[in-house]
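Course assignment 3, question 2. Fill in each field.
Student: A.L.
Task: Predict the tertiary structure for the chain below.
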Amino acid sequence: MQHRRLAFLRTALVTFILVASIGCATAFAQGTSETVWPTKEWQTSTPEEQGMDSAALARLLDFGTTLSLDSLLIARHGRIVLDAYYGRYAADVPHRMNSATKAVIGTLAAIAYKDGLLDSLNHPALDFFGDRSVAHDLLGGRLLGGRGVADLDDERKAKAMTVQSLLDMTSGIDWRETDGQSDMFTEMERSPDWIRFILDRPMSATPGDTFNYNSGNSHLVSAIVTKLTGMSTWDYAKARLFGPLGISASYWRHDPQDVTTGGNGLSMLPRDMAKIGYLYLRNGEWEGKRLLPPDWIDSVSHASVNMHLSREPDMRYSNFFWALPNKHVYMAVGYHCQLVMVFTELDIVAVTTARDFCPFSKLADSISSAVKSDKALPPDPAGAELLTNKIREISTRRRYDDPIPQAPEIVGRRQTFEPRLLPIRLAA
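Answer field:
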């Protein structure tokens, strides 16, 4: 009798384990497993457990060597499957995001809109400035005077400029940052009052008509966020974005009037950069709370503003994000390949930090090709060993221009301005 009971219990236990395993596998296959939130820390996984190929990721790391990457991170289904660092860079050293900062500025504008602080994205931008500098309007400074956008002959164009046209780089402000001949961005950073410099520029097009890359647009949005919230953009980010996502940003520059820089200047850990992408991948929700309005996510994921890039003709733009709609990917982009890539169809966030330009389409294809299934793959010991060895190889290989490790504050302060963005090299 005792033997029969033990046999029955063993059979029942095996049956329970089998049923539970089938249930978990079915839930994974149907995408009904519980969402993973990396607020405190990211969970990690083997690539095969998330339907990706370790050997393909090892080849991707070799590709990253040719692109002068400093780091490459890939997370699928909310779990990191690859977190690799080249040369002397390390996971705990913040990296300058350069113009990827713009995507964070846009995200904060979306939060202000969702919170009801901004009544409409089509609100006229000049309403926030009038004929005074932001130093006087926001911080109680002196009236600087001088000609502003609203005083130009073509006043109708200036008044048609909206927050949305700033976000889409279609403000119509005369600005040359990417033609290789002049650089308004550098001139702005050398001026004593950046907001006044931007607003003193003439209008060259009707707002909403033509894409023209302009870091002044994003700095105006940062000033608008400050106006709406009554606090610096960085403080607002800590309260409404970085705090909820568990991000600890190390450094963010500001202009001479203490307005947080909108065009660049934010330093962040790659794992924290990935959290920004994951917020978008989860449709603007975080731990069951909506942070971003659905229409904002829809605009970014269906970007339609043509950037007219010769080597990336399919590239589109929306809300300070770049997009390749035919590849179902959009991204925050910073000079020298600082990227936060969101693959909506594949449930992937990828982050790169680097020191040179990179081909967006080829990089997106290389990441996508490592996906083999929506379900877990069988373990691949050979592929896993290859990937482990490759991570070790790139992390110990010294490059002639490797930086000496420094404290995060120093890393964040090293660059005084961001070099101009050259479209032909961005797509090279």
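Instructor remarks: The first strand starts at residue 43 and ends at 44. The chain has a mean pLDDT of 84.
Grade: pending
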